[in-house]
Amino acid sequence: MKTRGERVAALTAYDYPMAKLLDEAGIPFILVGDSLGMVVLGYPDTTHVTMADMEHHARAAARAKTNGLLGADLPFKSYETVADAVANAKRLAAAGAEFVKLEGGREKLPQIRAILAAGIPVCGHLGMLPQSVLQEGGYRIKGKKQEEHQTLIEDAKLLADGGVFAIVLELVTPLVTTEISGKISIPTICIGSGGGCDGQILVSYDLIGLFPWFRPKFVKPLADCATEIKSAVTQWKKSVEEAS
Length: 244
Hints:
The chain is of the alpha/beta class.
């Protein structure tokens, strides 16, 4: 798609109906993201998501048998060692994931190479790393400082040379995003990082307004499903109460 100049539209799915709907809408890149920790399981961040959680939701989404590429996040602490990374990537592949995504730069190259050697494609993730939110004390934009800027560029090149097929850039300054996109041959898929990339990924619940209690500043919802659901339930409840 990058070679043809086509931008990549990517969204998250956590179950069969959402994966089916996204596929019917023609989404080519579907991710069973560990964001399910917040928007489905009610956790405060992604660090509470387990391998069992990811396997369960990956299986559900995979049952949609999507035409689009379907992958899953390796969750927090599931790829600390090379052996763990390969074993857990295999578990997600067995659950139906066609690729796995993991967070981190050059320090994760041994894990990436080992997963690839096991025959499982890998998507990288640079910039703001949600699984590191507790260590960093919150979410912040990356690439503002020159040293950070250079590290992101170098890490992106190393990941691309290391064999990942795409890189998610989260909360990276647009200047750095544009530079990375021009320097590597694989797609950059951004979230909250401006338009200088080869595609964009969003949490589907943010796009369709299905999680109204928190809305990222960079997302403009194109639907208000939460209000529609509450309205339908309220009308039905009223009809039951008023039935003679």
